[in-house]
Model the fold of this input.
Amino acid sequence: MARRVGSDGVRTEAAIRDAALRLIARFGYEALSMRRLAEEVDLGAAALYRYFPNKQAMLFSLLKTHMTELLAAWAKVRLPVSASAPVRLEAFTRFHIRHHLPRATGVFLSYMELRSLSRENFDAIEVLRRQYERDLAQILADGAAAGTLAMDHSRVTARAIIALLTGITTWYREDGPLGASEIEEIYWNIVARMTGIKTREAALCS
Amino acid sequence: MARRVGSDGVRTEAAIRDAALRLIARFGYEALSMRRLAEEVDLGAAALYRYFPNKQAMLFSLLKTHMTELLAAWAKVRLPVSASAPVRLEAFTRFHIRHHLPRATGVFLSYMELRSLSRENFDAIEVLRRQYERDLAQILADGAAAGTLAMDHSRVTARAIIALLTGITTWYREDGPLGASEIEEIYWNIVARMTGIKTREAALCS
DNA sequence: GCTTGAATTGAACAACTGTTCAATTAAACT
DNA sequence: AGTTTAATTGAACAGTTGTTCAATTCAAGC
Done:
């Protein structure tokens, strides 16, 4: 039967999280039963309760991990405010695409299953989401103030950009016609245009 | 009252559809039980099966109605190809926002619960969705060909625009700080910029 | 080999699932 | 009135749900 790695509970937990992400993305949180998930990782359903106190906590843990990983990864590549807004914006755009494309299932979950969270769990995730959004809005506001970007509402534009970039994951396929780097270029051009960049690709507006 | 069909069966069905839309948007399709839905409209659970053959058919009906209404409404305001691409694009943008803002729950469902559809039901909805998307892509392609718009990939840009516009429904609140018409202006400016419009607001690029 | 403690299990629980159907009520038509 | 048809129901069916727990298997330390 299941040839588990014994006391290496870490690998087991990772396998559970992985399967849970995949199955929830495919069928939805409510539609996924603990028995089905357990079967996927060759365990009895009861064994799952050694890794998560209950189903809701499992979902919360998945979503929270996704968001904290996102913020941690962004913190690593984020440019200092001393850099110009267009350069910081390009860094954000490329980072967002690079980080999200290989994590399509996690992204999907994070935007779809928020409603399955209890109120307090939802609030905890929302705080993280807004932090990310605010970071982008700040870049846009800085650019508008410095005259290197041109847009009407930095907060609204930030939301629009994130929606547009995240939407990639709904149609991107690894074996599709467009490669990740092509997509990166196309979308960076789009973002550059919609924020009225002036320092780069000025030819676009001539 | 002269019709043979039902006392006010139509009104009952509308009430059921309404409640179903609301409850599914809030808790998800899988999480909504027929008994809970029936309770919401003061019926026994069994009575629902007079209006829909089963739960899956109900969801499909809701999503299909949403999409056909969208396409029908768009067909009414769509401009002929004789009009310039920028004008047609503006019509599309404003239409999309006006149509979606008062239908937030339906929109949410249409993008969230696709995975809860059976394969064939999914395909039927997908056909409609792509038709809408192709319509926008055609406008962009026409504009690019005529030189009145400038973008790299009309298909990709069409998806980006729809994602960005539809994303409004995730944060728009009727009692929020931004009114519908304000949002319409902001987003039309965004779309105009990202498609490199040349005939209007040329000052943006100067 | 024996002990220890963690990992896993099968069985059980009570509640809930979508769906069916004969029986019943409500309404419409004659 | 009565007759016909539509609308609704309660009860039942056969599964499934998340979760608990005593009993068991397992891997490592002695």
Observations:
- Chain A has a mean pLDDT of 91.
